[in-house]
Specification:
Radius of gyration: 19 Å
Largest sheet: 5 strands, parallel
Helix content: 40-55%
Strand content: 15-25%
Structural class: alpha/beta
Shape: elongated
Number of strands: 12
Strand order of the largest sheet: 2-1-3-4-5
């Protein structure tokens, strides 16, 4: 899983990052509330571990902002505050689970696995609009400023993933796993070549490219244009 850890205790943060890494998870670890808010908003994670008391912005406020922005990443909140009111406050803010410090790592790992298995109940989205680009899954159509854009199936799938995660980075690995269904050599340029062709079609006769290349990471479709 891709796991975001927001924990300002250096020893605990390093322990969690190392231990989850040993289990095969890909971990991003931040120490402040503002960094947690940023990374949770622009990148895609299967689960997040969020300390309640963080410098800059506390975990409850981060959760409220994520949920208000329709970011549904499952969140396990860590806290030294074990009172009922504290737990209820975190859960009401949008936490999916709550674990009081100190805790056993085996329990934390099991809770993360359970959160990742839990289905997110929401109506399936079939229509996406970002800026002047629209994508419809039902009739497999793409339009830009009302103009039809003809894409090949994998080009369409690439754009779909970008629009599903609008404003957030989609990595090459995520594209490979989602669209091709298995692992490629990470040095392959199959994603870049397909994306280049898709962008050429999407941007033909337009001055602005809504897709941003994030060097060494992946791509994102901009929402600020």
């Amino acid at each position: 899983m891709r796991v975001l850890i927001a924990e300002d205790d250096d020893d605990l943060a390093e322990f969690l990052e190392h231990s989850l890494g040993e289990l095969g998870h890909v971990v991003t670890c931040v120490r402040s509330g503002l960094d947690a808010l940023h990374f949770g908003s622009v990148e895609v994670f299967e689960v997040a571990i969020l300390d309640r008391m963080l410098p800059g912005m506390d975990g409850v406020e981060i959760l409220k902002r994520w949920r208000a922005a329709d970011i549904v990443t499952p969140v396990l909140m860590l806290t030294a505050l074990g009172g009922i009111a504290d737990r209820v406050g975190g859960l009401n803010a949008g936490a999916d689970d709550y674990l009081v410090k100190p805790f056993a790592f085996s329990e934390l790992a099991a809770r993360l696995a359970a959160l990742a298995r839990r289905p997110t109940i929401r109506e399936p989205q079939t229509h996406f609009t970002v800026g002047d680009v629209t994508l419809d899954l039902l009739d497999r159509s793409v339009k830009r400023a009302g103009r039809d854009i003809a894409l090949q199936p994998r080009e369409f799938a690439l754009l779909e993933q970008l629009m599903r995660h609008a404003g957030r980075i989609v990595t090459r690995t995520m594209f490979l796993e989602t669209i091709w269904g298995y692992h490629f050599d990470p040095k392959t340029n199959i994603v870049d070549s397909h994306l280049s062709r898709m962008r050429a079609k999407l941007n033909f006769d337009f001055d602005f490219d809504p897709i941003e290349t994030v060097r060494g990471v992946g791509y994102r479709i901009r929402t600020d244009a």
